Amino acid sequence: MARSKELTPAIRWGYRRIHNRYPYIPISTIRYTVKKESERRVGVSKPRSGRPKKLTEADKDQILNAIHGNPKIMAEDLLAEVDHKVKYRSIQRLLNAENLRK
User: Fold this and answer.
1) CB 81 within 8 A of CB 75
2) Rounded CA separation 11/31 (Å)
3) How would residue 79 be classed by pLDDT, with cut points 50, 70 and 90?
4) Crossing angle of helices 88-97/57-69, nearest 10°?
5) Cα end-to-end distance, the chain, whole Å
6) What is the C-alpha separation between 63 and 82, in angstroms, rounded?
7) What percent of the chain has pLDDT over 90?
8) For 44, phi and psi rounded to 5 degrees?
9) What span, in angstroms and rounded, lies between the C-alpha atoms of 65 and 70?
């Protein structure tokens, strides 16, 4: 039984050995990548934080249901459906994402 935690293959190799194999990658980048490996889940980086969405999924469903119920509904009425949380352009982006164009 080992006294300490088992080393990953990347750490066992060492920064210099990895750099000798891939000389176009700086050693600092290799060191940073190996250290960040413990924070990753199954080799995938953590998601980046971003601006919170103004429209919830319920709001999007409400807009789409209004359009399916009345395809000739005006944009101002769609904005009223969600209490003017967003601008007209956001409604356009939502409709483009859903392949619905007015």
Assistant:
1) no
2) 9
3) very high
4) 80
5) 68
6) 8
7) 43
8) -110, 135
9) 9
CA torsion 91→102→63→86, rounded to 10°?
20
C-alpha 87/C-alpha 102 separation (Å) is 16
- Residue 28 carries which side chain, given as an amino acid letter? S
Query: What is the 3 state secondary structure string of the chain?
Result: CCCCCCCCHHHHHCHHHHHHHCCCCCHHHHHHHHHHHHHCECCECCCCCCCCCCCCHHHHHHHHHHHHHCCCCCHHHHHHHCCCCCCHHHHHHHHHHCCCCC
